[in-house]
């Protein structure tokens, strides 16, 4: 059988192209390509070379439309035993090709050519072409034989024109030779035999039969030459005669050959036409051809020679003629019949050619898998030959089947598509089309795919191609490790190692082996390296920009519209970056990865390689790092791996497709799940861009970066050091606060940082920050109550509760003085300095309450004065101790005067000792001791609270009482307008509540409770809530004075006598008329009418001035005394008492206010306008001495 046969093959003239002399292989191929352009020579172009010696036997030669067809055979071919049967199998012309620069001796060239031509007895025309001869060769060549043709040196186009002329001359010579042959065949009897003819002695009947057959065969041969001469009408006439004679002599084999020739003549005559009638005629005739080839089968010759090859060729010719998708069914039937006949072919070469042709035709139909199947049959036939060339052929054939079996090498992809795939590998955030996954992975083909790869591996080993062997073993191990036993896996690993030993160092392969590599995550920027875009139009250039990185949500993007596009990740030139990838080794051997690093095609990134050891059936997450080298976008499609001695590129996209296929059941297994790795959710790959170098601030807390331990309310100053670790100076910087408890940062020295700008690379600045610990919540207190000494701080430290310093900083606006228009500003940075404050429970409030003290005053010659009166009366300079004594100490002889105390009970649950100090702050309007000052603070003696103990602290509230009672405290919204009479007669409840709250806050703000523990730990307690709760119901009693103040005083008429009196101070004698005065002070701004009453009680509390058992006599009026007290002045009323019994007595004054106004009723908390208002003064003690 012959390859590449068709119905038109019978009309092609075979010409052998033979190298003569020394000629390089590539040069020979170049010359051969020139011949291929002249495979068809029109008859009209050879008329100048054609001479008709006698009348041509080709009477119907189509000189205007016909042509001669050449089939060039490079290197020639051995003579075929079937040349008599099919004349187109003969080598009818020989052309020698000589490269004259390497063959200077033309005589030896001609001699060599003539010697070669002797091996081609069927050749009718011989020519030797010499290319690029020198001048001497041109001169010498003209004297040589006529078969030598020299082509002068010229360009390619000129050479081809010259060659075209030579081919026209050869065509004319062949045509004339064909005419001679036909004349000889018709005149003289020619014996034509085939291997099918019997070699035994023939009987007389067989001799007669043979003579008749000879005539028919001669007509068939003449028809062949007519067809080769380009005269299909003449050929058809001779084929018709041959058919009649062959049918009469039952020469089925030649009958089929003549019928084949007639079909070829029909197609040549109707060249370019393809109508259904012609197609049906060709199909019908070829069916008869196939049938008669079958009839010519002789059983006794079956072991030696068989016409089966011609039958199969006929099937292939008809299939090639009908080969199109509309007639696919008929073509498949023909090819299937031909494939079935392959079993009966004797020659393995014939089977090889048959399978090649079947594979080609199935491929032309688009049946790639059928074509791949027969290609594998071709490869198997090649592998049966134990030689390297056959193995190379098998490898090449198998490489063509890999696409159909979906096991093709990545190197077989086109470069452009590969680059596009790499560039867009993660550009769509991991989008994978379902159809591509189905086409790449089909688990039902796994066994067949393994067989194909094994055959490729075997062929590559035999062919001595270590790279192809490594590629096949890598694909086999990577794709089908679940179906391979551990021993088989180790064998493939050894095959990889053996192949790599035969490869030069640094060899790259497009097919990755192990390990499997997938993208694990892009680590976010550390808090000290966040990138912030700059807005040059705003002074706060960082506003409205969120830190860079693949954030789905960031707390720093307040109210910004969420961009649904891809996130952006910014890298900085010269700063190392890191990406996490996961490696998996699902095989049963230890895997040594010599190096692995990120694969970047943009050229602006230097990766750092690392080596990894992976135990059997294990996975490992590793960081891969590198340094950006120049600004621009960066694309990371995968990793470059040096393993098993070869460098390969592992694309993340391939593993993503693999895992998707495993999830959908299209792939055998998930290599990461096999190694025990948990399922990884989709990793969104950001758009990575590299920007020029930026400054880099690094912070640390002076004294250590651990937790700042503070007790509740403690105030402490810490120092934060900032250093520029970048290569660009810091020219802009701004400090702000973020997080919870921002009010715990009392002061930040903004100017300190700005004063050192620009902060050059390597420079450092230290800024102080004042902190105040906040109050722990109930949950924190519960946790603190159950703490242990060893882990108390660790459990109470909560990053979410601590504030942070945000430092936005940036370098120069541009790197050059004149930036180009439209240039993008380099971004800034945001440094987050977390203030890791650990607040421990300090002093805790147990309770707070308001105490009222009623200490009786003693009646004497002078009336005790209130605090504000005493302060007003002091005009001389008094020391600070005297001031403090006046405020802190209580004179028991002065009396209480409605004195109230705020008692705070404090508990110390900590392990340290606290000292408590209470101070009050008085305004200058109330404190005349500090003239010229806005406020003066006075402190009370310190109290010490040991650990696990409690203490009570008393805070006197007498100094906060107002000196005058008027309506301003109640009537903030009072309008003396006639239209608002209803409002003039009543107070607004809302206004009263607001004024009460303001008064309480004012009072609380003046009282400070501070603590100190050790040398450096101090703070202030938050007593607002406690005081507020204690004063909620008594604030009016604390702040507002009584409308009337009462006092008693002894009246001495004889002061000189008193000076010599030895009685105790403030005492009176029994049985003596003692004159006294009661003083009533009006603390309001209006005249008050009162009805005053005076009582005197003994130690038992009984009234001793009334009744039958009265022990005190009096003169004057003690009851129903009507007095009009002028505003802010005192009124006196004199009386005398005569004590009959010595002892302790108590004087008390009381008054009923008549016609009280709204202010007095509000102070007395009365609702009814008719309810009387009763005022009672404090008790005054009188000591009576003497005898009864």
From TrEMBL:
Keyword annotations: Golgi apparatus
Residue ranges annotated for the Trs120/TRAPPC9 N-terminal domain, each copy included: 9-197, 204-268
Domain Trs120/TRAPPC9 first Ig-like: residue ranges: 545-645
Cellular component per GO, a single term: trans-Golgi network
UniProt-annotated location(s): Golgi apparatus
Domain (Trs120/TRAPPC9 fourth Ig-like): residue spans on this chain: 1055-1184
Statement: the UniProt record of this protein carries the keyword 4Fe-4S: no
Ranges for domain Trs120/TRAPPC9 TPR region: 330-497
Location of the Trs120/TRAPPC9 third Ig-like domain: 880-1039
InterPro entries, A to Z: Ig_TRAPPC9_Trs120_1st (IPR058565), Ig_TRAPPC9_Trs120_3rd (IPR058567), Ig_TRAPPC9_Trs120_4th (IPR058568), TPR_TRAPPC9_Trs120 (IPR058564), Trs120_TRAPPC9 (IPR013935), Trs120_TRAPPC9_N (IPR058563)
Keyword Signal included in the entry's annotation: no
Descriptive protein name: Trafficking protein particle complex II-specific subunit 120 homolog
């Amino acid at each position: 059988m012959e390859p590449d046969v068709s119905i038109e093959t019978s009309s092609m003239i075979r010409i052998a192209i033979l190298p003569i002399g020394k000629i390089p292989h590539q040069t020979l191929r170049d010359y051969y390509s020139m011949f291929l352009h002249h495979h068809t020579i029109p008859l009209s172009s050879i008329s100048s070379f054609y001479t008709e010696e006698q009348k041509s036997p080709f009477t119907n030669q189509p000189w205007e439309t016909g042509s001669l067809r050449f089939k060039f055979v490079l290197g020639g071919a051995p003579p075929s035993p079937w040349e008599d049967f099919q004349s187109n199998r003969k080598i009818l012309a020989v052309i020698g090709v000589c490269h004259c620069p390497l063959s200077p001796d033309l005589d030896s060239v001609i001699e060599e050519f003539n010697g070669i031509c002797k091996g081609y007895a069927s050749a009718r025309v011989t020519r030797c072409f010499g290319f690029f001869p020198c001048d001497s060769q041109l001169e010498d060549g003209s004297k040589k034989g006529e078969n030598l043709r020299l082509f002068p040196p010229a360009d390619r186009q000129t050479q081809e024109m010259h060659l075209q002329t030579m081919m026209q001359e050869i065509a004319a010579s062949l045509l004339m030779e064909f005419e001679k042959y036909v004349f000889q065949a018709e005149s003289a009897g020619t014996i034509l035999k085939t291997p099918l003819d019997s070699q035994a002695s023939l009987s007389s009947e067989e001799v007669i039969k043979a003579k008749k057959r000879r005539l028919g065969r001669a007509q068939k041969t003449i028809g062949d030459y007519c067809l080769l001469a380009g005269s299909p009408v003449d050929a058809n006439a001779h084929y018709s005669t041959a058919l009649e004679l062959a049918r009469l002599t039952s020469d089925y084999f030649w009958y089929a050959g003549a019928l084949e020739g007639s079909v070829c003549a029909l197609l040549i005559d109707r060249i370019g036409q393809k109508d259904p009638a012609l197609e049906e005629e060709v199909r019908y005739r070829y069916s008869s051809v196939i049938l008669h080839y079958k009839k010519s089968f002789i059983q006794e010759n079956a072991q030696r020679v068989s016409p089966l090859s011609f039958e199969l060729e006929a099937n292939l010719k008809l299939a090639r003629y009908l080969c199109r998708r509309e007639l696919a069914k008929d073509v498949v039937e023909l090819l299937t019949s031909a494939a079935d006949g392959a079993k009966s072919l004797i020659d393995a070469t014939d089977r090889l050619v048959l399978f090649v042709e079947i594979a080609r035709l199935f491929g032309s139909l688009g049946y790639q898998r059928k074509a791949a199947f027969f290609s594998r049959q071709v490869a198997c036939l090649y592998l049966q030959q134990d030689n390297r060339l056959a193995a190379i052929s098998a490898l090449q054939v198998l490489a063509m089947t890999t696409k159909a079996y979906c096991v093709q090498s990545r190197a077989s992809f086109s470069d452009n598509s590969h680059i596009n795939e790499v560039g867009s590998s993660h550009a769509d955030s991991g989008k994978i089309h379902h159809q591509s996954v189905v086409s790449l992975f089909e688990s039902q083909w796994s066994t067949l795919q393994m067989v194909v790869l094994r055959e490729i591996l075997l062929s590559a080993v035999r062919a001595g191609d270590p790279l192809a062997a490594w590629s096949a073993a890598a694909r086999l191990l990577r794709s089908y490790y679940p179906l391979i036993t551990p021993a088989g896996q180790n064998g493939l690993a050894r095959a990889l190692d053996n192949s790599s030993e035969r490869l030069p160092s640094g060899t790259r392969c497009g097919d990755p082996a192990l390990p499997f590599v997938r993208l694990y995550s892009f680590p976010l920027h550390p808090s000290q390296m966040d990138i912030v875009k700059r807005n040059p139009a705003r002074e706060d250039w960082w506003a409205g920009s969120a830190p860079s990185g693949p954030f789905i949500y960031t707390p720093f993007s307040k109210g910004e519209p969420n961009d649904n596009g891809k996130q952006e990740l910014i890298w900085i030139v010269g700063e190392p970056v890191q990406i996490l990838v996961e490696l998996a080794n699902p095989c049963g051997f230890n895997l040594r990865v010599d190096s692995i690093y990120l694969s970047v095609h943009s050229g602006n990134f230097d990766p750092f390689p690392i080596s990894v050891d992976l135990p059997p059936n294990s996975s490992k997450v590793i960081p891969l790092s590198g340094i950006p080298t120049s600004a621009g976008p960066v694309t990371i499609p995968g990793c470059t791996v040096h393993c098993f001695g070869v460098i390969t590129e592992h694309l993340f996209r391939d593993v993503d497709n693999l895992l998707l296929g495993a999830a959908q059941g299209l792939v055998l297994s998930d290599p990461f799940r096999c190694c025990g790795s948990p399922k990884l959710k989709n990793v969104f790959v950001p758009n990575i861009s590299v920007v020029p170098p930026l400054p880099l601030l690094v912070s640390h807390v002076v004294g250590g970066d651990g937790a700042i331990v503070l007790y509740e309310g403690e105030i402490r100053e810490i120092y934060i050091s900032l250093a520029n670790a970048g290569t660009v100076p810091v020219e802009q910087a701004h400090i702000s606060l973020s997080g919870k408890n921002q009010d715990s940062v009392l002061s930040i020295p903004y100017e300190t940082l700005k004063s050192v700008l620009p902060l050059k690379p390597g420079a450092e600045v230290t800024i102080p920050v004042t902190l105040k610990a906040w109050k722990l919540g109930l949950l924190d207190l519960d946790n603190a109550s159950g703490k242990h000494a060893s882990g108390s701080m660790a459990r109470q430290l909560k990053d979410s509760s601590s504030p942070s310093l945000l430092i936005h900083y940036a370098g120069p606006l541009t790197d050059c003085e004149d930036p180009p228009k439209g240039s993008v500003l380099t971004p800034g940075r945001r440094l987050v300095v977390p203030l890791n404050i650990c607040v421990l429970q300090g002093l805790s409030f147990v309770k707070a309450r308001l105490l009222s003290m009623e200490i009786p005053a003693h009646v004497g010659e002078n009336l005790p004065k209130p605090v504000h009166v005493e302060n007003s009366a002091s005009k001389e300079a008094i020391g600070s101790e005297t001031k403090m004594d006046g405020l802190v100490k209580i004179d028991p002889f002065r009396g209480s005067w409605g004195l109230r105390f705020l008692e705070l009970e404090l508990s110390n649950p900590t392990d340290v000792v606290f000292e408590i100090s209470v101070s009050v702050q008085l305004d200058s309007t109330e404190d005349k001791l500090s003239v010229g000052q806005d406020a003066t603070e006075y402190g009370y003696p310190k109290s010490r609270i040991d650990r696990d103990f409690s203490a009570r602290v008393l805070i006197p509230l007498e100094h906060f009482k107002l000196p005058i009672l008027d309506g301003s405290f109640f009537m903030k919204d009072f309008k003396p307008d006639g239209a608002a009479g209803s409002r003039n007669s009543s107070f607004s409840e809302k206004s009263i509540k607001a004024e009460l709250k303001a008064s309480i806050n004012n009072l609380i703000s003046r009282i400070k409770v501070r603590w100190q523990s050790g040398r450096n730990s101090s703070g202030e307690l938050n007593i607002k809530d406690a005081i507020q709760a204690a004063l909620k119901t008594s604030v009016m009693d604390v702040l507002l004075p009584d409308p009337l103040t009462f006092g008693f005083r002894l009246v001495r008429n004889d002061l000189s006598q008193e000076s010599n009196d030895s009685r105790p101070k403030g005492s009176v004698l029994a049985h003596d008329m003692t004159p006294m005065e009661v003083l009533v002070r009006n603390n309001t701004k209006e005249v008050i009418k009162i009805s005053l009453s005076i009582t005197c009680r003994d130690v038992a509390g009984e009234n001793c001035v009334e009744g039958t058992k009265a022990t005190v006599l009096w003169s004057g009026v003690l009851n129903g005394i009507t007095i009009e007290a002028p505003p802010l002045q005192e009124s006196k009323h004199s009386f005398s008492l005569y004590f009959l019994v010595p002892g302790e007595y108590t004087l008390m004054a009381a008054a009923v206010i008549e016609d009280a106004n709204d202010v007095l009723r509000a102070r007395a908390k009365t609702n009814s306008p008719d309810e009387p208002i009763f005022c009672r003064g404090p008790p005054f003690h009188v000591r009576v001495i003497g005898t009864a």
